[in-house]
Amino acid sequence: MIFPSYFNKQTSSSSLAVYRFFFGLLMMFSVVRFWTKGWIEELYLQPNFHFSYYGFEWIKPIGDYTYLLFIICFISSLFVCIGFKYRLSIIIFFLSFSYIELMDKTTYLNHYYLISCISFVLIFLPANSNFSIDNLIRSKSYELVPKWCVDIIKLLIGIVYIYAAIAKINSDWLFSAMPLKIWIASKYHFPIFGNTLLQEDWLYYFMSWTGMFYDLLIPFLLINSRTRIIGFILVIIFHMLTKVLFPIGMFPYIMIFSSIIFFSPKFHDNIIKYLVNLLNRILHLLKIKINQSIHLISIYQFTYKKTTFYILFIFIVFQLLFPFRYYLYPGELLWHEQGYRFSWRVMLTEKTALANFKIVNPEDNTFFYVDNSDFLTPFQEKQMSFQPDFILEYAHYLGDYYSKMNNQKVQVYVDCFVSLNGRKSQRFIEKNIDLYLKNESFKNKDWIIPLKDEIRGI
């Protein structure tokens, strides 16, 4: 095995235990937040049509049982948090959350993908070795775990940051301050600074450059013990600022919590001690006694099979290479978005678009235009109008719908114009292409009209 001395190193089990505890807690809150905001109904039950990921077309909302899926996700995240039947719980959480994520492509967010990645990795780690209900059940805890079990989480978080920085090294972000200029200037309604500081041109460039350098340097600040506190303070300031300025959901909290994994084992030991003392006080107030003692074992004695290492090795290699798949497609990535998702590209584009679909009867050349609101929600229509795989899938849906209605084959064309990062809108799709004859694949979509501009970058 490569680097055998490294894989024999041990570290405190409290690092994984703390991460598991707060990860489960944060996921519980996320599920409750999603439910209470009415998004289950709005995003998964109300729409008549759902956009699918290529290869996962079979994953769809399951009617009112979708609520049951969220309940399962909540309960499994609770069990992960407290470390009860951990292995089974994290597997169920990974499967239920990933199913929710895959139900409709319209709701894609980078941090949803990150949660699926983290939960997948946690399946293979002994995160219940300390501070868990499983410890009480088996009457033993483990002081040490393999060091790589903690480092792999650090590596995954580092990949997210560094790849986000690489994506920002482009002329739109650095030399035109786009799309931050559009977004921040629109915050004129903010108290005190809305009509003053947030309208200053220099601020947009300052935030663009600092955002790129933050993503690039923060993993190194966190990994170094001398700069870790500074890095953590920057993490809090940066993500709280983005939370105030932009509607990006749970992403800031996930990244703040994830940065804790970089702290020393002693720091996590102290967190465990604090949580244990807090729990004891609560149990004392409730007059609940736990008489079962826990025997502390020095090393987590778990024999990792070679298949575990191979799975995680392949997973990490995939995370390193997959974001660069856009090199396989000609043209500007920010325009055609082939290879854009699942690549840690965060807040790089602002697009406005209009897509009108024309249904043609090829026998007599009669046609009519579709009212998209008959099939899509406003949010779905907005996302569909500038993403080619959405446009193609929707065109096939319309083709199937009207072919069945008229009992004859139809042709589907689209009149689509898109504006990218403040540019003048231009035609996005060849208007004379029958999209009903085009099939989704990993091949280049040659019916996308190239951007009439150059965005320089990596």
CA-atom Rg in angstroms: 25 Å
N→C terminal distance = 34 Å
Regarding quaternary structure, how should these chains be classified? single chain
Shape: globular
Count the E strands: 7
Strand content: 5-15%
Largest sheet: 4 strands, antiparallel
Q: Which spans have pLDDT < 50 for at least 5 consecutive residues?
A: none
Order of strands across the widest beta sheet? 5-4-6-7
Characterise this structure:
The chain is 52% helix and 9% strand. It contains 18 helices and 7 strands. Strand 6 and strand 7 form a beta hairpin. Helix 2 (14-36) runs antiparallel to helix 4 (65-82) and helix 4 runs antiparallel to helix 5.
Primary descriptors:
three-stranded mixed sheet, single chain, 458 residues, alpha+beta, four-stranded antiparallel sheet, 18 helices
Q: What is the fold's blueprint, element by element?
A:
Layout: H1 4-7, E1 10-12, H2 14-36, H3 39-45, H4 65-82, H5 86-102, H6 110-122, H7 133-138, E2 140-146, H8 147-168, H9 171-175, H10 180-185, H11 201-223, H12 228-245, H13 251-258, H14 265-285, E3 295-299, H15 306-321, H16 333-336, E4 351-361, E5 366-369, H17 378-384, H18 388-406, E6 411-420, E7 426-427
Parallel strand pairs: 2-3
Antiparallel strand pairs: 1-2, 4-5, 4-6, 6-7
Brief summary of the model shown:
The chain is of the alpha+beta class and 458 residues long. The protein has helices spanning 4-7, 14-36, 39-45, 65-82, 86-102, 110-122, 133-138, 147-168, 171-175, 180-185, 201-223, 228-245, 251-258, 265-285, 306-321, 333-336, 378-384, 388-406, and strands at residues 10-12, 140-146, 295-299, 351-361, 366-369, 411-420, 426-427.
